[in-house]
Amino acid sequence: MKRKKKTTVAETTPAEWEKTSLQRFQPLLSADEFELLTNELQHPLQPSFRINPLKMKPEGVLQLAKRYHWMLAPIPFCPTGYRLKEASASVSLSQTLEHRMGQYYIQEAASMIPVELFHLDADLPGLFLDLAASPGGKTTHLVSRGGDRSLVIANDSSAGRIPALQIVLQNWGAVNQMITQFPGEKYGMWFPEAFDRVLIDAPCSMQGLRTTESHETRPVTDREILALSKRQVSLLTSALQAVKVGGEVVYSTCTLVPEEDEAVIDQILDRFGDQVEVLQTGISAPGLLSDGNFDYHPEVERSLRLWPNRLHTAGFFACLLRKTSSFDLPTQPPPSRPLERTGFSRLSQTGQSRLAHVLLKDYGFDLAALMEELDLVLVSYRDRRFAFPRRMLSQFADLPVQSAGLPIGDESPDGFIPAHAWISRFFDLFTEGRVVVPEEAVSGWLNFEDLPFEGDTSSLPAVVIMTDPAGRYLGRGKLTGHRIRNLLPRHSR
Ligand SMILES: C[S@@+](CC[C@H](N)C(=O)[O-])C[C@H]1O[C@@H](n2cnc3c(N)ncnc32)[C@H](O)[C@@H]1O
Q1: What's this model's pTM, rounded to 2 decimal places?
Q2: What pLDDT band is residue 218 in, cutting at 50, 70 and 90?
Q3: Is 258 touching ligand 1 by the criterion CB < 6 Å?
Q4: DSSP string, 154-191
Q5: Ligand 1 atom with least separation from CA of 206
Q6: Which CATH class is domain 48-106?
Q7: Once rounded to an integer, what is the mean pLDDT over residues 221-232?
Q8: C or N terminus of the chain, fewer CB within 10 Å?
Q9: Residue 441: enclosing H or E segment and its boundaries?
Q10: 163 lines ligand 1 (CB under 6 A)
Q11: Atom 17 of ligand 1 has which residue's CA nearest to it?
């Protein structure tokens, strides 16, 4: 007789896994809540997004709803978040010009919680660290909540995930940020008690009971969970070491596995219970006090365990912690590579005046005023000019970075060419050098077609700013004879 082959986790399909994982969670729930959860999972998740206050005024969301005939519902726990009623979504969230221009970020509603948990004073610029940041959804939220004068360090250990983070932050128009690529475990010992707020949105097994575009439910082994849990404890320890006394840390995962959620907080309280407290959040979704085998520290209940039925989201876990006194842990000097050794240098006074003059003359853009207002400095790398956060140069000048700030543009034989990311962020301040794309040509232009042009070019710079007849930014174009060459970046589709 043939022996029945044992099915391994690797052979389990995502659909089979989704069913068995729901059963695995059943013992953690009351019968009533399990029924509510099972019912909830019959309904699709509503798409949701968060608007970019750097690029969109509060009334912009009403204009969006009107333009695309969207029925929107505000997300109660995130003032900049909205859900889209699927029935009204004849134009999907990812298809609009506004999405392409970084005016909103498509994000599952639960993922809006971690950054909302921080107590922040918009008038007090802070120093923030996002320890595991790519692709940057929550970093954009930190940038928005921190305001332009705060500095955000976005770190991720994976080299392959840095480009996505760079694209997302540039598209968001985030100037006061820098991106690093280090194991997050190092930050605490390199920069003890340096940051006002630290977010650790930890790598996890993604058992959120919902398959979304960015979170596919996949089979996971107990061994993997154990390894993840160890890494999560190390990352959270590093985050807590890096935060100032009195500062806050948010720990979050998109998994419902207790070993990666409550058990992590429990281990931290076991070790640092005298130096750390878990804060209440005001959202009713208490953490577990036991996983059936182990009882957790009573403060763990103040965490947020979001079974999908609680707030109609994917499964999620978050915990807000405050450091109440210093940690006695080893420290180490951080790696050092002076900025000048990387080819970047501060722009000379003459270079600054020249750049400010050209931008004012060609585009009506007052660079000097903006640098002052947002506390930025001008930096040069070959022909490219950047705006870097001043605070980065005063506090982290020697820390090796992957990128920082926003590119302003390039010196070229045709004159100074402003960068798309810069115009897209400060579009309203570019009052000259604009060309309107006729209504009938807008869709072709957005599909990267060039535009025939017979107008007077004598007062225009070589690279012009394109708008639609309603005055919305459509990217840059280069005047060449009787046409305008389309310079829309390809990743902006
Ligand atoms: C859940 S994702 C972060 C999602 C991101 N916060 C967002 O909202 O877009 C976890 C990230 O942690 C990174 N990561 C994994 N191990 C890490 C470590 N030891 N230190 C820093 N980052 C790590 C992964 O590369 C991944 O990008």
Answers
A1: 0.94
A2: confident
A3: no
A4: EE-S-GGGHHHHHHHHHHHT--SEEEE-S-GGGHHHHS
A5: 1
A6: alpha beta
A7: 95
A8: N
A9: helix 439-446
A10: no
A11: 157
